[in-house]
Amino acid sequence: MLLSLAFAFALDLRLELVRESLTGTHCRYRQYVDGLPTDDYVTTPCTVERRPPSAADSRENPAAEAAAAPLRWAGSRIAHRVIDEHYLEDYDAESGALLRRIPLFFNATKPARVFDPNPVVALNDPSLQDRNDANVIPDAAYKNVQLQDVADSGPLRGPYISLVDVQAPAVPPSDASGSLLFNRADDGFEDVNAYFHIDTAQRYLQSIGYTGRRAIAPYPIETDAHARSGLDNSLFLADPFHPGTGTLFFGTGGVDDAEDGDLVVHEYGHAIHEWIAPGSFNGTFSSEARAFSEAFGDYWAWSNHYAQRVQSGRDPFCFADWDPRCWTDDSAELCGNPPNTDCLRRLDSPHTMADYQRIEGPGIPHENGQIMSSALREIFLAIGKPVTDTIVIESIFGAPSLPAFAVMARRMIDADQLLYGGSHATTICAAMASREILTADQCAIVPRGEWTHYPSGERAIPIPEAEPNGIASHVTITDPRAIEKLFVRVDVAHPSRGDLRIELVAPDGTSAVLQQISTDRARDIHVTYGIDATPASPLDVFRGKSAAGTWTLRVVDLILQDAGTLQSWDLVIQFAGDAPAPQRPRDARTQMIPAVGHRFGESDTFFASDLRIANPSNAQKTATLIFTRDGDDGRANFSAVNVVLAPGETVAYDDVVQRVFHTSGTGSLEVLGDVIAMSRTYVPLTSGGTVGQTVPPNLDTIGANDGALIATFFPLSTSRVRIGVVETAGVPATVRFSFGLELHSIDVPAYGHTQLPIPNFFQFTYSLETSTPGARVAAYITEIDNTTGDAMFIPAVRGHQTTATRIAPVADTAGVNGNAWRSDLLLGPTSGTDVTFVDGSGGTVTRRLAGQRLFPSVLRDTFGKTNTSGILVAQIPPFAELTATRMVNGAASEYVPFVDPAGPAEQHLVFIESTDAFRTNVGFVANEPAVAEVILFDGAGHEIDRRTLDTPRGIAQLAVTPRVTNGRALVRFLSGTGRAFASMIDNVTGDAATTLGQ
Length: 998
Hints:
The protein is mainly beta. Helix 7 (364-383) crosses helix 8 (385-396), helix 7 (364-383) packs antiparallel against helix 10 and helix 9 (405-420) runs antiparallel to helix 10 (425-433).
């Protein structure tokens, strides 16, 4: 019976809406059942016949066009309303006669006072308060502007906004013929402020191409700047009878909402997407469609006002930071925000889809929307405002009903493909994947060995201001093969990247402009042109040319006041005939870095990894970098690139997962080739600086029947702990260990990496084994401070069968910049062992210490020594190799291992920096008299300093004084033996990252 009723209905689809965008025309068909409309519709690209345009682009038959337009009241008559580019026209529904024609343009410009976007941003003063809507804001917070195309008389209106009074409280709109120079205590101020921000936002849309038939919301949106019955909220209300249009209502509770330009543009953002895709983003409070609507509004307002925030120095990722500042108001003002609210919302939320709230409530869409708005903000900072704005707008055209975040993310990738040939797909993918909106395999570009990087050895070049010739940096390539594809990876530090013109010149003089000077005021450039940024002119001009010769990158800054630095750049070439590798590349020389990443971790901590690879030889070397994402079988699923290093060169790949592999997440990084490799994983802090730890390659490994790896961590109540395992031989492995009395196992894919938390601190010593034939595994502990996110990377080590002498540097001393260093000692499982402190002059103190214990401030509390440094010499019993120290400086700490004092005669060190951001100490520890020569090199391999260090026994070190970025050190022992180290210290946080000589 039900089936027969279903077939009795007459179903049809009717065209109800046509929208034209930069990528094409989009038709929406509403589904009707028995002549009645349903909530279901289909949107599809379409072709609409067009008449040839007339000279003035006027309509040849406006009455016929009106007959198809929606109905509405025009005075006492029912009329069809048609909105043209220049006029709003109402036609009588019966006769077709033109009832009225309202111009959407005016000639007058009028002076006015506004907030741009609000006084907190303008003055960078978060102490400002509403004070019951009093006129207490300094004059400097106001901006004098010229309102464009204002009506001559009547209520304030223009082509894109019409002020009305349709909702309580009753506040008539300002008279357009009067003065518009109001203070915020005047009712007219909110009218003028709303006019300015909506008019500005609309004109910006036109500037990026949305004019004529592509115009978005090209009507005077009715706006009540004093509404909502005095409540502290605002809304856009769609007109159900005129799809794509609506009215804006701004509340007056607390800070009047129309005073905050962020809120005005946010609500206008709803009008924008409603015009493009009417009704598509409605839904329940928990729906992703509604959350996207709020995310778009937040992003659109932030994008429109980012430059003002950067200029004033105000928190760049705060949204609506004037609206909440009403907590000192009288209760009658109906302030809707709790005390000390700094921002209504933020654009840098660390939340992912794991944090998405599937509950109903009016504030839920805004909370959930911050996941998407944060992704859009990340894309904006990577590729710039106009491109990001256009991609986001285009993704809304043709959106289906109630789209999920993933749908909109894929639509952005599609829009980028249509607009820019997919140049920004990896950036979009990385932002979406890191928030779990998309999985990496849904969208990422994965290089598999077909790309070769040629880094320039010329690093950290200052870019002169107002110098027409700028700077020139070079890369010389000896491979004569023809180019199939070419990309350019560029890292520039500059406070206003739009000031720069960047051009690539080939050996034969062929050139391509990568970036023109623009109004983009975002900081820095960290992109690969042709992959995640669109060059200003095509890179196809190099296709088919030989790569051999010297290539030049020219960077010109014609604007005064903002100086910058070309940090580094690479040519990335796919040669003709090179194809993605079907199998994982292999080499006799391999180094496995167990974990690198670009992702948010626990407690909303963001982690990134930097890589250094060095070629200390006199011959060119090629390294292959292979990234295997967590959970993937690295035999088949991997990303790989080749890097050609000139003799002596050191290459820096900061944030290597995102900037080299163009993806996000965590995994293992294998380095093939005869090079030096080292990584550092760190947390960038919002207060400035970084905290982190070096993650070295070549950890101890075990196979079946090789015994155990021993892992430990410092038993600190302020930390969380994870254990990680990586497989290095290409055989899936099972690793066994215990939590307390429970035996656990971890399955690790071939060449893969996996990590899991250690709950409740069952113990701080772990033994790991594998019985998988052919597999080899390494393991580590990462111990993360719950407050700062600072991580200590602690490798698991193989137990030995005899007592061994091991040494480690220790300190209890003051450093530069107010730093104070101390060492904690963690002694492994032993019934007791002798530990000797050796100071800088060779003096010694020995203590018998019990095992399986932590000795905080070991020099002061155990050896009675302060204001000194040196080494600890420990006689470590069999299977107690996990003995370690940690160097503590305030809230920052680093793991420092005990090492075999006998090292090779020559040892290489990377992560040598002497810049505004970092300083570095280089030295060695020795258990005997030793003399060593320390030679410093810049990134290109040029020697910049040479000094000699010696010690009777203990520690010898020097501060790197020549200014150097991405340097390298060689420690050559002239007599005796020891272990070289470098300690790179963040100048803001004081956090140190120690590397050992290789």
